[in-house]
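Batch manifest, entry 17 of 40.
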Amino acid sequence: MESIREDIQYQHPFLAVKIFDAERSCQPDKKVTRWHYHKEIELILMLKGRYGFYLNETPVVLQPGELILIGSNELHTDYPCDNGSYLVFQFDIQEHLEHSGLPYYRYFADPSIPLSRLNYIFKENPEASKAVADCIQAINEEFLSKQDGYEIAISIQIKRIILTLLRADWRKVIPSRENSDIIRLRPVLDYIDNHLGDKLQVEEACKLTNMSYHYFVKYFKKTMGISFVDYITLKKIRRAERLLLTKDLSISQIGEEVGMSNMAHFYKMFRKFKECSPNEFRKKMLYDMAGKPEEPISSKPEESQNFQNFSVCQ
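Output type: structure tokens
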């Protein structure tokens, strides 16, 4: 069966999240949804009824109050085994991990470590399951009410979800990191933040940590889960996003502001991390923030996978 990559349309540009209430019914002619995947982590909370999902070919039927976690780029689909209503919450974890959390990013986003392995937590730990479910409900309520500061409230709830999963993971699906590693890199992280608009040199970072070039490069990637160069680029792109939406500056001026005066390189890196050009990002996000009606996700077939056709009701 052919799979598609979904392009998730975020409901808020700074939060990189989408949450919606889906209602499905079991109909005799209902076909299995196409297999799909996306870079965002997805959590599904069953509200009422009963509904089925396939995650990496494994069938899962959710009852009211139950959860399922789908990791970045994990193949999944759904099948109706009863009428059901559920909340779907999708978010880009990279946008919600600051310095202290970045070491865990590689484990949450690494396709070689399927996050679906964490679903055992929801079966074995009722307290953790309820905590995550409450966070999802709170996020949905914040989006519906849009009270002052709702963005902050949603970001806090996302961090609570991440923290709950980390601390409830007694099987250590997500490996832990030594705090001393982060402490040793703190001068480098501060140096990057304070000189983001400048041309940053790895040699200066080596001096700050008293490490050789080769040792530092390996140490940084092992600790942070991302290379030194990619980390700097990510920080620059994040700052560029905010400038695109909050300042009346040209694209070239924004490139200068974030220390990426070479426009070809700026466009290339922006597309690498955001999968669109700076202009496209600005137009789309400002349009969305102005109240553009939600559109269905447009996806392009990118990869074919051979899966058997499952029965829609089991």
